[in-house]
Design a protein that fits this description.
By secondary structure, this protein is of the alpha/beta class. It has 16 helices and ten strands. It is 42% helix and 11% strand. It has a six-stranded mixed sheet with strand order 1-2-3-6-7-8.
Length: 439
């Protein structure tokens, strides 16, 4: 019988999983599985990386995340059924990180689930999920009510009770039995999952050490959860199926869910901020008018070489559709200058005469013979990158300006991830294993 993993963490579940998103489809193919899900905790940082890797390897991508619900931080797995569901997942994840923070963790509530429920398939989660934890604590009626609530939110065809293949977790077998009974009583479909955090069984020790680094504890401490005792590997289908022969429909539902999922994300499209244009004018016309009007402020007289350079650059910029980008950047740089905010533009943008006459850059590319082609040429597949720095103490004012002018949904902060290089890894692992730094 076929099986599809629907509850899998990548290393974007920070310091909790060892698997790289680009490796997931390869691992699925090794196990002869036609699809695989990625469900990181609270976030979708690796969604596009995972999606592209799946397409490259001929494996169907199932994109989701493991949500934390309410002040109890109960787990709930959410999967996108299609592109609409994917967009709703992004809204939910963004809400969790901007408006739902509880103790530094991104959380959701019932109201926001109701708002963005469309085309999302929900699984009841691990033993820390709302329904499993209630069953684990003997609160049967409360578990029934919670199950009805989720079934009402997502609909009878979009909510599943999740039987987890982790017999070593204390109480998991009893919870699974309770979930089977609950599903049959309330007519809620069942599905089998594994809470996967690494590829192979032998990776358990490494993942346990990683969690110790995250929690700031040592491996030899007795007052901690020992992750080595539970197999959280991306196990073979036959092994999992063998333990759930009494509920074959729960295995079959993994494939049925995978078959229902069809996510097509439009990539390699550029969405520039909407700029205000006079009636009857295009962005291309406005860019040309602004550049030509400013040219005399910088060059007097305008030599044939300067005119030829300007026409060449405008031709490339306009042909590639980047006029709105240059107008937008020139606008907020102008705002900074007019409001006494110290700013500077660095990098290859200094090679653009258009950027220079618009006031975006301050270095004359003609005088210093700086080539335009390093910044932008007809064969470059991606838009030009204009790096602009602003005074630290006025950065908030710049963000407020672009948010007000272009819309809150057009402005985003850029996240960065710290990686564990060799030296830091040795130091942190040594600390978790209880070795002195000198050792």
């Amino acid at each position: 019988m076929d099986f599809v993993h629907l509850h899998v963490h990548s290393h974007y579940s920070l310091l909790d999983s060892l698997i790289r998103p680009k490796d997931l489809p390869k691992l699925a193919k090794e196990r002869r599985q036609k699809a695989i899900a990625m469900t990181d905790t609270g976030a979708m940082y690796g969604a596009i990386e995972f999606y592209q890797a799946c397409l490259a390897n001929g494996v169907k991508p199932i994109i989701g995340f493991e949500a934390l619900i309410g002040s109890e931080l109960n787990h709930l797995v959410l999967l996108a059924e299609n592109y609409t569901g994917y967009r709703n997942l992004m809204m939910l994840s963004s809400f969790g990180h901007t408006e739902g923070l509880v103790g530094g963790k991104a959380t959701l509530n019932i109201d926001v689930l109701k708002k963005y429920k469309a085309h999302i398939i929900a699984l009841s989660g691990c033993i820390r999920g709302t329904i499993p934890s209630l069953l684990h604590n003997g609160k049967i009626e409360s578990a029934k009510q919670a199950a009805r609530t989720y079934q009402e939110i997502f609909g009878p065809e979009h909510f599943y009770l999740e039987l987890q293949d982790h017999p070593a977790i204390s109480g998991q077998m009893e919870v699974n039995t309770g979930l089977v009974a609950l599903g049959r009583e309330l007519n809620i479909p069942l599905v089998v999952t594994r809470d996967v955090h690494y590829a192979r069984v032998e990776d358990a020790e490494a993942q346990d050490t990683m969690v110790c680094i995250r929690e700031g504890v040592r491996v030899d401490q007795t007052n901690r959860e020992d992750f080595r005792q539970v197999d959280r590997s991306l196990n073979d289908s036959r092994d999992i199926v063998s333990r759930f022969r009494h509920v074959p429909e729960a295995i079959a539902n993994t494939v049925k869910i995978a078959d229902r999922v069809n996510i097509e994300i439009p990539l390699n499209q550029w969405h520039f901020a909407a700029i205000d244009l006079p009636e009857g004018k295009t962005a291309d016309q406005i860019l040309r008018e602004q550049a030509e009007a400013s040219l005399l402020d910088y060059y007097d007289p305008v030599t044939p070489d300067v005119r030829e350079r300007l026409e060449k650059e405008l031709g490339i910029i306009i042909t590639k559709g980047y006029a709105p980008y240059f107008i937008c950047v020139a606008d907020f740089v102008r705002y900074a200058k007019n409001n006494g905010i110290v700013e500077t533009t660095r990098g290859s943008a200094a090679g653009s005469l258009v950027s220079y006459v618009l006031g975006i850059t301050t270095v004359d590319p003609i005088r210093f013979n700086i080539p335009f082609e390093r910044f932008l040429n007809p064969y470059r597949p991606s838009p030009p990158d204009i790096d602009t720095d602003f005074a630290d103490d006025r950065r908030d004012k710049m963000i407020a300006y672009v948010t007000s002018k272009y819309g809150a949904d057009k402005v985003a902060q850029i996240i960065t991830f710290g990686t564990m290089a060799a030296r830091a890894s040795v130091r942190d692992v040594g600390r978790a294993l209880g070795f002195a730094y000198s050792f």
